[in-house]
């Protein structure tokens, strides 16, 4: 299923974008909830095969920015978006976008794992059915996704048991596998480990490093050590604005802006 109902339009900035292996490019993005200006004039790129971490204090617009990338804000009453998010030259905010097809390529995993109250297998088949993937491909696709989500060995003998019987960490990896069955190019993770214990968190972090080999990962996190451990680049948001984005090691050792330095040092947030 094609994402765009209309043909792709080559944008003027595409040649420069392609050279840098940029996959997503937010340009002058604004998101409003009624009068609340949640994301303000944000321009930010996401490169292919990187982990990009979005950090910043509560309410600074990280999740809103993340959700806008695959149109998760569409259903929120009073939400309004201006600007562009280019996905390989296509504005994902355009009216011509087939949102279901977009979400197949740009998948999302939320803070709290919410498996359907069905078997592990049924949880994974759901998306395949929805996207009319041939039944003959289901088993292989499911094994592949569970393997990538580092869950196959733990569940291969209980695929038809309830997903709700899994631990919190296993449920979150199942939710990641549920996104992976659709073979997305980008995974948007909204605080994927914040509800998990340290061991389950370490597994999710290891998974992010593995996933970027074949996918691109954008992760919202409150945990700065986590951002430092898993991400290639970090973007710091404050009060709806993007304050600074850059190489994670450099940003944590030598931030360019005072607000970033203060946040990283724990002086606010
Ligand atoms: N559905 C919504 N309706 C109205 N306002 C919202 C909605 N979602 C978020 N907001 C507001 O938009 C602003 C940004 O919220 P957002 O959730 O994007 O921030 P955040 O940085 O992800 O915060 P947190 O780290 O606490 O999740 C906040 O002021 C928030 O209250």
CATH architecture: 3-Layer(aba) Sandwich
Largest sheet: 6 strands, mixed
The number of domains is 1
Bound molecules: adenosine-5'-triphosphate
| Average predicted local confidence, pLDDT | 92
Question: Terminal Cα separation, in Å?
Answer: 42 Å
Going across the biggest sheet, name each strand in turn.
6-7-8-3-9-10
Low-confidence runs of at least 5 consecutive residues: 6-18
Which series of helices and strands comes N to C? Answer: HEEEHEEHEHHHHEHEHEEHH
Count the beta strands.
10
CATH class equals Alpha Beta
Helix content: 25-40%
What fraction of the residues are assigned to beta strands by DSSP? 15-25%
- Rounded Rg: 18 Å
Give the overall shape, derived from the CA principal axes: globular
Number of helices: 11
Main structural class: alpha/beta
Looking at the structure, the CATH topology is: Rossmann fold
């Amino acid at each position: 299923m094609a994402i765009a109902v209309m043909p792709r339009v080559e944008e003027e900035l595409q040649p420069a974008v392609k050279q840098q292996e940029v996959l997503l490019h937010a340009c002058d993005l604004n998101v409003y909830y009624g009068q609340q200006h949640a994301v303000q004039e944000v321009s930010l790129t996401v490169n292919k095969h990187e982990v990009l971490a979005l950090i910043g204090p509560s309410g600074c617009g990280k999740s809103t920015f993340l959700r806008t990338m695959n149109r998760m804000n569409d259903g929120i009453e009073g939400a309004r978006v201006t600007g562009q998010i280019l996905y390989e030259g296509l504005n994902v905010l355009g009216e011509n976008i087939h949102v279901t097809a977009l979400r197949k390529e740009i998948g999302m995993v939320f803070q709290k794992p919410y498996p359907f109250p069905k078997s592990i297998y049924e949880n994974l088949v759901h998306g395949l059915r929805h996207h009319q993937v041939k039944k003959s491909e289901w088993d292989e696709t499911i094994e592949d996704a569970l393997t990538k989500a580092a869950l196959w060995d733990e569940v291969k003998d209980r695929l038809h048991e309830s997903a709700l019987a899994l631990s919190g960490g296993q449920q979150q990896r199942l939710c990641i596998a549920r996104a992976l069955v659709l073979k997305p190019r980008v995974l948007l993770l909204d605080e994927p480990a914040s509800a998990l214990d340290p061991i389950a968190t370490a597994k999710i972090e290891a998974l992010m490093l593995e996933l970027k080999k074949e996918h691109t990962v954008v992760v919202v996190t409150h945990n700065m050590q986590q951002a430092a451990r898993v991400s290639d680049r970090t973007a710091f948001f404050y009060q709806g604005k993007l304050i600074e984005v850059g190489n994670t090691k450099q940003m944590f050792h030598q931030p360019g802006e005072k607000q970033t330095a203060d946040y990283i040092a724990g002086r606010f947030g």
